[in-house]
Amino acid sequence: MSRLEDELRQALRRREPPAGFAERVLARARQRQTHYPPLFHWRWLAAAAALVVLAAGLYFFEERRRRLEGERAKQQVMLALHLTGSKLRLAQQRIQRFIGPGAAFQN
Amino acid sequence: MTVPQAIPSRKSGAPAAMAIDEADFEALVHEHQAMVFSLAYHFFHNEAVAEEVAQEVFLKLYENLHRLESPAHVAFWLRRTTCHRSIDWLRRGSMRREVQLERLPEIPESPQAADPLLQERLRRLVASLPEKPRLVVLLRYGQDMDAGEIGRVLKMPVRTVWSHLYRALAVLREKASRYLGEEAV
To answer: I need a surface site. Which of A39, B36, B63, B138 has the fewest CB within 10 A?
Structure first.
C-alpha cells in the first residue's frame, strides 16, 4: 500500500456526528410520524387513485365507443335516405315519361 | 470488511423484511450514525451539511424500515442512500463544493509537514473531486470496501470503479506529492 493510500485511510476515517445527533433524528422521525399518515395509508390512497384513473379511463373509452357507433348509424341512415330519395326521383321521372306531358291535366 | 459479499435482495427471493420497531430504529441510528455522518462529512467537507444529509438519510430509513431484510441490508441501504442523497444535495444547488483544484489554498512546503495538515489537505482534495470518483475514494478508503461492493452501492461496473479510483488517485498523488514525498504519477 502506498503512503498516499495510507494517509487517505487516516484522513477519511470515521468521525462521530455532533452531540445529540441521534436525538435530533428521532425527534424529526416522531414529528414526521405525527404530521403524515402512516405509509399504509399512502398505499391505500395510491390504490384508490389508481382505481379512479382506471374507472375514468373505462368510462371515456366506453363513451367514445358509443359516440363512434352513433356516428356510424347516422351515416348509414343518411345513406339510406339518399338512396331512397334517388330511387323515388327515378320512379317519378319514369312515371312522368310514361304518362306524357300534360297527362295530369286530362280527365 | 464490515459488509458481507452477498447483499440480500427481495428481488432474488430473499427472506421477508426484518421486524423492526421504533426502539430498533433508535438502535440502528446509534449503530450507523458514524458511518453515515462520516460519508456525508467527507463528501462535503462541511459538518452542517453532513448533519443535514445524514438526518435525511435516517428519516428515509425510518420510512423504509418495512423493506429492509437484514442488518447487512440496512448497512448496504444506508451507504447507497447516503451516496445518492449527497449527489442530490449537490445537484439541487444547495451547496457547490466542487472547488477547482488549482484554487485550493497551498500549504507551505515542508518535508516534515505534520500529519494533520496533510490529512486536512487530502480531505479538501477529496472533497474537490467530481461526484463519482469522490464517492469511490470515500467508500474505498473511508468505508474500507472493495471494488465489487463499491460497484453494487454506486450501481456501476467494477471496471468503472477501478477507472475512477486510478484517476482519482493520480490526481490526488499529483496534488499532494510535495507533502507525501512521493513522485507524482
So the answer is: A39
DSSP class of residue B70 equals S
User: In terms of pLDDT, which residue wins out, B172 or B97?
Assistant: B172
Residues of B in contact with A9 (CB under 8 A): 141-142, 144
Helix or strand run (H / E) with residue A89: helix A39-99
Q: At B170, phi and psi to the nearest 5? A: -65, -45
Indicate the residue of B29, B50, B118 with minimum beta-carbon distance to A22.
Answer: B29
CA distances from B106 to A5, B31, B122, B176 (A): 21, 37, 12, 10
Please give the Cα distance from A58 to A51 (Å, whole number): 10
Per-residue pLDDT tens over the stretch A56-95: 999 999 999 999 999 999 999 999 999 999 999 999 999 9
Whether A17 has a pLDDT exceeding 60, the answer reads yes
Is A16 touching B (CB cutoff 8 A)?
A: yes
